[in-house]
Write a structure and sequence with these properties.
There is one protein chain. By secondary structure, this protein is an alpha/beta fold. The protein has a single domain (3-135, 166-239), classed as Spore Coat Polysaccharide Biosynthesis Protein SpsA, Chain A (Alpha-Beta Complex), CATH 3.90.550. The chain is built from seven helices and eleven strands. It has helices spanning 32-41, 58-66, 83-93, 115-124, 170-181, 191-198, 222-239; strands at 3-9, 26-27, 30-31, 46-53, 74-78, 102-107, 130-136, 143-144, 150-152, 160-169, 207-211. α5 packs across α6. The model has no long low-confidence stretch (mean pLDDT 93).
């Protein structure tokens, strides 16, 4: 089994309020996307990485990749109209793969990615068809109707907050996208959820949930930048 990766860096970040997408902002003297990208490149078992970017930034990436060590393991793919189309483009950019090859999918705006996480992904794919990292919900939850009325307060112990990286056997994620293509009204927010939707419950035993990390923050606001920076500095110190 060979392992490949898709790094999603194509978001436009319009809600963030910055002059450019958040993955291109500087954080601790580096671009946000560099943290995850460099961690992926540092794993020699990852054969190739599809970097999904918006076409407006193609020229930036062509220049950036020229001076990048191990840049030959990267291939550019165009961001789609939504997340699913972006991942699909990333899969296509990786070329012909075997059914049991592993695919790792990660968000570039989750900079706290570690080699240990990726080793866990590599290991779990030897026994499972798909896996995601997730952490417990520590907040009380409310379930609401579309009109704003309250349905109830579910038991938070039954719920987890899903993170990336997520990983899949190639055939599993390919079949999930075939299902999505035949259900155009489906709007999945992540690939593990899509796989669950596309699969009979009898197959859930072949999927796994890995223990996530609260430091693996998805940057969606300026406050998140301040929150994640000390964790990244700590991670850098431990790697030195």
């Amino acid at each position: 089994m060979k392992i490949y990766a898709i790094l999603l860096a194509g978001g436009k970040g319009t809600r963030f309020g910055a002059t450019r997408p958040k993955q291109y902002l500087r954080l601790g003297g580096r671009y946000v996307f560099e943290y995850a990208l460099e961690t992926l490149l540092a794993q020699s078992f990852i054969e190739r990485i599809a970097l999904v970017v918006h076409d407006d930034y193609r020229d930036f990436w062509r220049g950036y990749l020229k001076g990048l060590k191990h840049g030959q393991r990267l291939t550019l793919a165009s961001a789609g109209k939504d997340r699913s189309h972006s991942v699909s483009n990333g899969l296509e950019a990786l070329g012909k793969l075997e059914a049991n090859d592993g695919i790792v999918i990660h968000d570039a705006v989750r900079p706290y990615l570690t080699g240990k996480m990726l080793e866990s992904v590599r290991s779990i794919l030897t026994t499972h068809q798909a896996a995601t990292f997730a952490i417990p919900s520590t907040d009380t939850l409310l379930e609401m109707n579309g009109d704003g009325s309250i349905i109830g307060s579910p038991n938070r112990q039954r719920f987890l907050r899903v993170q990336t990286p997520q990983c899949f056997r190639y055939q599993t994620i390919r079949d999930a996208f075939l299902y999505r293509n035949s259900h155009p009204l489906l709007k999945p927010t992540d690939e593990f959820g899509l796989v669950l939707t596309a699969s009979p419950k009898a197959s859930y035993s072949s999927y796994a949930v890995l223990e996530g990390d609260r430091r693996n923050i998805k940057i969606t606001s300026k406050e998140d930048m301040s929150l994640v920076l000390p964790f990244l500095q700590e991670l850098g110190s431990n790697n030195n």
